[in-house]
């Protein structure tokens, strides 16, 4: 503040740019107080300019709710009005299993926006400045959940072929639902970029291991690229690198500043006029295409029944979807807004889905093919959104099982068999969790309880190990000592009493007297002979080493 005061305010007031000492400042301030008041606004402006703003990084300059890709042009115009000279456009596409809440969290993380899920659900495009450089900005297209594949493909072309793609780990593992919107977008990008120097960019945002996701994406892309239409004059695209000039994989935990820098570096910033021209040319091409398709399929498209179903069922489907989800959320949350466990959550989901289908049947025509398609889409979206609530219920079920496990451990008696008793309690709790968790699964869904069961088993095992260490350290627990191991050796001496006349006849005339049975029938040597010391001559000598034969 002192630096700004000396360098800017005083020169403006005094008509001089010289710096002076403290006394001179005092005199000048007394004489020019009126001029200083006039320049107070300038000081506040400079302070705001130099001070860092915590909220600026997440503020949106523009947002639009109209249909894509026209809304992109409006956002670019707003950025241009804010002084942006270079703008990077991109289209956000997700795989089939990504829910609306997951998409909102992803955008909040990647782009630093603070809009809620309800507000973000209606935004089709938004723009913001890159505050490290006020001349640069980004405009992101956000196709809604009910958008058609051709609308998403046109938006990707309007963005110059720059796509931010966020696949679900579930879809990556199964290899399904990855290219519902990405395949039409790639098909249009290949066609629009044929014979031009424009660069197409794909930024893949993954939540797990990047190398694994890269392998899964390439494997799935190889099979899908062989089925899409490609211009005959160009080389056939066999992989993502053949479609896009740059393919980058980035973690979903990356901070938004790093992500925006990466996007601007790869996407290639352009003038706002060039971005708006790209949107205009795409809209014109789509209009010509729609007219051609309408002329070829006028008989089927002009069906009054289908047109009425399209106008009526679209809003009705969205209204029924939101209402059904709100009912389920109300049951699975307490008064404080926190998740609470519902034992029969699977039955609740099935009943809510059936109720939603019945409500749609009341306004839908049963003979219309379009009505059946919209009904199937409603069921799929309904269960996809319920997947997030299922994960919350699974966490609550795991917490309840763990608390029950701890309660059973507290009732155990400390004994030498404490370790085996704790393992038994863990097995019982895990089996009870598996039984209760299966009741949370809805019919006809791919919801799995296996990951939560494995995680709970590991947590119980670690808890048991910690409690055993504490019990051992306190001296209360002493494990059962191990029993000693007895080893027995058996062998046979062919000459236990030395040589006798049956084996060595010539030894009969030896000087040694062999004594087998003493006179008293009790001992071989008498006490007198022991005292005399000559008793050794009365004992059968041990056989020589070369005569010993050991038999095991």
Strand content: 5-15%
The rounded distance between the terminal residues' Cα atoms is 101 Å
- Largest pleated sheet: 7 strands, mixed
The global form is: elongated
Number of DSSP strand runs: 7
Low-confidence stretches: 1-26, 32-38, 43-57, 291-302, 505-509, 540-552
Strand order of the largest sheet: 1-3-4-2-5-6-7
What's the number of helices? 21
Order of helices and strands: HHHHEHEHHEEHEHHEHHEHHHHHHHHH
Question: What is the typical, i.e. mean, pLDDT?
Answer: 76
Class derived from helix and strand content: alpha/beta
Helix content: 40-55%
Please state the CA-atom Rg, rounded to the nearest Å.
Answer: 43 Å
Would you write up a description of this structure?
The protein has helices at 2-14, 22-31, 33-38, 40-50, 70-81, 100-111, 117-120, 149-158, 169-174, 182-192, 210-225, 240-243, 256-267, 272-296, 298-301, 304-331, 345-363, 369-410, 418-438, 450-474, 527-532; strands at residues 62-64, 86-94, 125-129, 136-141, 162-166, 201-206, 246-251. It has 552 residues and is of the alpha/beta class. It has a seven-stranded mixed beta sheet with strand order 1-3-4-2-5-6-7, sandwiched between helices. A hairpin with a 6-residue loop joins β3 (125-129) and β4. α18 (369-410) runs antiparallel to α19 (418-438). The radius of gyration is 43 Å and the shape is elongated. The model is unreliable at 1-26, 32-38, 43-57, 291-302, 505-509 and 540-552 (pLDDT under 50).
């Amino acid at each position: 503040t002192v630096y700004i005061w000396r360098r800017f305010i005083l020169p403006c007031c005094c008509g001089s740019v010289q710096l002076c000492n403290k006394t001179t400042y005092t005199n000048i301030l007394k004489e020019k107080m009126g001029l200083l008041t006039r320049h107070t606004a300038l000081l506040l402006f400079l302070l705001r300019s130099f001070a860092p703003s915590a909220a600026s990084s997440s503020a949106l300059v523009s947002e639009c709710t109209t249909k894509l890709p026209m809304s992109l042009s409006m956002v670019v115009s707003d950025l241009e009005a804010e002084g942006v000279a270079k703008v990077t456009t991109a289209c956000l596409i997700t795989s089939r299993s990504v829910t609306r809440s997951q998409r909102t969290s992803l955008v909040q993380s990647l782009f630093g926006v603070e809009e809620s899920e309800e507000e973000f659900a209606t935004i089709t495009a938004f723009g913001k400045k890159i505050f490290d450089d006020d001349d640069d900005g980004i405009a992101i297209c956000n196709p809604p959940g009910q958008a058609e594949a051709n609308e998403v493909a046109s938006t990707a072309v309007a963005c110059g072929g720059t796509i931010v793609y966020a696949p679900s780990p579930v879809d990556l593992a199964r290899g399904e639902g990855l290219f519902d919107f990405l395949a039409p977008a790639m098909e249009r990008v290949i066609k629009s970029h044929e014979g031009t120097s424009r660069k197409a960019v794909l930024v893949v945002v993954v939540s797990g291991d990047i190398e694994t996701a890269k392998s899964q994406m390439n494997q799935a892309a190889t099979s899908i690229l062989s089925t899409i239409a490609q211009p005959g004059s160009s080389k056939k695209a066999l992989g993502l690198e053949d479609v896009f000039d740059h393919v980058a994989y980035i973690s979903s935990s990356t901070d938004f500043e790093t992500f925006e820098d990466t996007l601007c570096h790869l996407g290639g910033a352009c003038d706002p006029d060039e971005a708006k021209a790209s949107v205009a040319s795409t809209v014109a091409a789509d209009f010509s295409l729609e007219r051609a398709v309408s002329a070829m399929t006028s008989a089927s498209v002009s069906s009054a029944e289908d047109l009425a179903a399209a106008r009526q069922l679209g809003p009705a489907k969205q209204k029924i979807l939101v209402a059904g989800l709100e009912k389920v959320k109300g049951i699975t949350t307490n008064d404080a807004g926190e998740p609470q466990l519902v034992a029969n959550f699977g039955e609740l989901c099935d009943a809510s889905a059936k109720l939603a289908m019945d409500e749609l049947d009341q306004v839908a025509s049963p003979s219309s093919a379009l009505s059946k398609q919209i009904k199937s889409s409603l069921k799929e979206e309904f269960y996809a959104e319920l997947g997030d609530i299922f994960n919350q219920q699974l966490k609550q079920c795991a917490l309840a099982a763990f608390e029950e496990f701890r309660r059973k451990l507290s009732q155990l008696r400390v004994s030498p068999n404490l370790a085996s008793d704790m393992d038994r309690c863990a097995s019982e709790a895990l089996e009870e969790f598996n039984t209760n968790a299966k009741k949370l699964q809805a019919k006809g869904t791919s919801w799995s309880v296996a990951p939560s069961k494995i995680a709970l088993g590991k947590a119980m095992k670690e808890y048991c190990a910690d409690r055993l260490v504490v019990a051992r350290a306190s001296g209360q627990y002493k494990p059962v000592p191990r029993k000693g191991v007895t080893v027995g050796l058996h062998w046979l001496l062919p000459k236990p009493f030395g040589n006798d006349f049956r084996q060595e006849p010539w030894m009969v005339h030896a000087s040694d007297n062999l004594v087998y049975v003493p006179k008293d029938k009790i001992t071989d040597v008498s006490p007198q002979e022991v005292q005399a010391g000559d008793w050794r001559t009365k004992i059968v000598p041990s056989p020589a080493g070369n005569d010993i034969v050991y038999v095991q």
